[in-house]
Amino acid sequence: MLSIDTIPGPTMRILLAEDDPLLGDGLQAGLRQAGFEVDWARDGIAAEHALASVAYAALVLDLGLPRRSGNEILARLRARDARLPVLILTARDGVDERIRGLDGGADDYLVKPADLKEVAARLRALVRRSSGEASPRLRCGDVELDPASREVTLAGAPVALQPREFALLHELLRNAGRALSREQLEERLYAWGEEVGSNAVEVHVHHLRRKLGADVIRTVRGVGYLVAKDARG
């Protein structure tokens, strides 16, 4: 199977809340290589502002943030019933800290230093569970996408996609049966500071239809785009 034509690009947008500049830079670069679009907040207040303005797929949260701690951010997040998947990534390795974090609403807990491949795998699992998906592979008819290997097939044959095409298809498949607007798709696929063309989403949809078939992505007039839920589950 394979197929992304160029260097792996983003599949979903996440927030990294980490104050250590060297560690944050490494995590951002590594997670981007693993296929995530990463916004990086360097303190707790900045993280909360980002969470209030963007619909992220997941949050990677350090506990020892300046200005507002990770535990405070988590408590405020869950107090408003936000279901955002949260992976705590911290140097605090005590059992009591782990219990506090998990009981406080975190979905997973990793101690630094952590292997980047494991961080990426745990994020994919958290996002998958939050979407109600048991299988790691996503399907719509004859189209199948594997987020971990970044492979796409059509009736079993590999399909070559550009990174942003893969990202768009992944987002639509994660939300199968639900129409997403152009604005929602742009927000989820592009990180801070990235330039977004006025018709970027439409162009990517056109290319995906050409490669996968005209009926895979449907246009919902006045709303946006969707793919149907796979009848095979």
Secondary structure layout:
Blueprint (H helix, E strand, L loop, with lengths): L11 E6 L3 H13 L2 E6 L2 H10 L4 E4 L8 H10 L6 E5 L4 H9 L4 E4 L4 H15 L7 E3 L2 E4 L4 E4 L2 E2 L4 H12 L7 H8 L10 H13 L5 E3 L3 E3 L7
Parallel strand pairs: 1-2, 1-3, 3-4, 4-5
Antiparallel strand pairs: 6-7, 7-8, 8-9, 10-11
- CATH topology-level name of the largest domain: Rossmann fold
Roughly how much helix do the residues carry, as a percent range?
25-40%
The SSE string, one letter per element, is EHEHEHEHEHEEEEHHHEE
Average per-residue pLDDT, rounded, comes to 84
Q: What does it look like?
A:
With 233 residues, this protein is α/β, with parallel strands linked by helices. It folds into two domains: 12-130, 3-Layer(aba) Sandwich (Rossmann fold); 138-226, Orthogonal Bundle (Arc Repressor Mutant, subunit A). Helices cover 39% and strands 19% of the residues. The protein is built from eight helices and eleven strands. The protein has a five-stranded parallel sheet with strand order 2-1-3-4-5, with helices on both faces. Strands 6-7-8-9 form a four-stranded antiparallel sheet, covered by helices on one side. Strands 10-11 form a two-stranded antiparallel ribbon. α6 (163-174) crosses α8. The longest helix is centred in the middle third of the chain and has 15 residues, at 116-130. The radius of gyration is 18 Å and the shape is elongated.
Q: What's the short version?
A:
With 233 residues, the protein is of the alpha/beta class. The protein has eight helices and eleven strands.
